[in-house]
Design a protein that fits this description.
By secondary structure, the protein is of the alpha+beta class. It has three domains: about 1-105, Gcn5-related N-acetyltransferase (GNAT) (Aminopeptidase), CATH 3.40.630; about 140-245, Gcn5-related N-acetyltransferase (GNAT) (Aminopeptidase, 3-Layer(aba) Sandwich); about 270-340, 2-Layer Sandwich (Nonspecific Lipid-transfer Protein, Chain A). The chain is built from nine helices and 16 strands. The strands form two sheets. Strands 1-2-3-4-5-12-6-11-10-9-8-7 form a twelve-stranded mixed β-sheet, sandwiched between helices. A four-stranded mixed β-sheet has the order 15-14-13-16. Helix 5 crosses helix 6. The longest helix is centred in the first third of the chain and has 15 residues, at about 85-100. The mean pLDDT is about 95.
Length: about 350
């Protein structure tokens, strides 16, 4: 049976995580202290033993002028000796049902390697959230315009959270974080020997830069600034601190060389189409949704005048799998699809710093 986690099952879940992911005790302490909650965790139990589990972490996502709830699948794992018994399939179905019950229309995840992408595609997930690595030269000795840069500490979490949330909150289709989430990002960064830099003009925080060494390269995981000068000052401080002249900048954008970071799946098609209709009030179309896993989505809808209604007659304009519907409503690489789909605007969904 599938149940929600409780304190009795908690040690078994931790043991399962350790076996499946081989993470260090230090990382597991950060994750289970800051992210894990029994009430967000589903467990497959066989003969009173936990054999598989996953977490559904709550994150808001900007969607037009509103925000929608998403559930981020994390820690999906099955004990090695219990695999190939369709336990994860059972857990995902249970998770989708719980999301629907709690009015969460969208689920997201970051697959742990290309080997599991096909598995999630079978359950309706589709590629999303492009990321691209760029090799950049770092400026030297930037000390202009009263910009002061310092390395952040844990006490700076509230200020950085407020700044980052202000920047991310202005971007459409962007996963949002709470102050507690940013605290977990700080701990994960510092545990990995990373550094976080803050740029200020007077008393105002104007830029943040997250860095980490990965093998023999310096990686800038995220660079958020309000102006060009702050960005240059941050990069100059990175160069001086690490004593390097170049770095790899991770950018959340599409285009040549971009690769999908994560995946997404619509759980509640009607709710997502309602939100999309409000976001794109000038678009009019009808769509028959085909969802092999979730029967409640298998209906025909009409989007018009900023509203979504169920359509019971006529031939629909589109007949879409739930994966393609997800791609179109989130605007993912629409320009690469046949021209009939180009009524849906291309957009760039953003997800970053997820402790992946």
């Amino acid at each position: 049976m599938v149940v929600y986690a409780d304190d009795r099952l908690f040690p078994e879940i931790m043991r399962m995580w350790k076996i499946c992911f081989e993470d260090s005790d230090e990382f597991m302490d950060i994750y289970f202290r800051t992210k894990y909650r029994n009430e967000n965790t589903l467990v497959k139990v066989v003969d009173e033993k936990a054999v598989a589990s996953l977490q559904m972490l709550p994150y808001d996502m900007t969607f037009g002028k509103k925000r929608i709830q998403t559930a981020y699948i994390s820690g999906a794992c099955t004990l090695p000796e219990e695999r190939n018994k369709r336990y994860m399939e059972e857990l995902l179905h249970a998770a989708f049902t719980e999301m629907k019950k709690h009015q969460i229309p969208l689920t997201i995840l970051i697959p742990q390697g290309n080997g599991v992408v096909g598995f999630y595609e079978k359950f309706g997930y589709t590629a999303m959230f492009d990321t691209k690595e760029q090799i950049i030269e770092l400026p030297e000795n930037m000390r202009e315009g009263g910009c002061v840069v310092k390395e952040a500490e844990m006490k700076d979490v509230p200020a950085v959270a407020n700044f980052c949330n202000r920047i991310f909150g202005k971007k459409d289709l962007t996963i949002q974080k709470t102050t507690e989430d940013w605290g977990a990002v700080f701990e994960d960064c510092f545990f990995s020997d990373g550094k976080i830099f803050m740029a200020r003009h007077g008393n105002q925080l104007t830029g943040v830069c997250f860095t980490r060494r990965e093998e023999n390269r310096l990686v800038i995981k995220n660079l958020l600034t309000e102006n060009e000068l702050s960005g240059l000052c941050l990069l100059s401080s990175v160069a001086n601190t690490y004593r390097v002249s170049g770095a790899v900048l991770v950018a959340e954008s599409g285009g040549e060389g971009a690769q999908p970071l994560g995946m997404a799946r619509i759980v509640d098609a009607e709710k997502m189409l309602e939100q999309y209709a409000m976001k794109q009030p000038r678009l009019q179309f009808s769509v028959k949704v085909i969802d092999k896993q979730l029967a409640w989505n298998n209906k025909t809808y009409r989007v018009h005048s900023g509203k979504c209604t169920e359509a019971n007659a006529g031939v629909p304009d589109f007949e879409l799998s739930v994966g393609l519907l997800t791609r179109l409503l989130l605007g993912y690489r629409v320009d690469e699809l046949p021209s009939e789909y180009h009524i849906f605007p291309s957009e760039n969904a953003v997800m970053s710093l997820m402790m992946e």
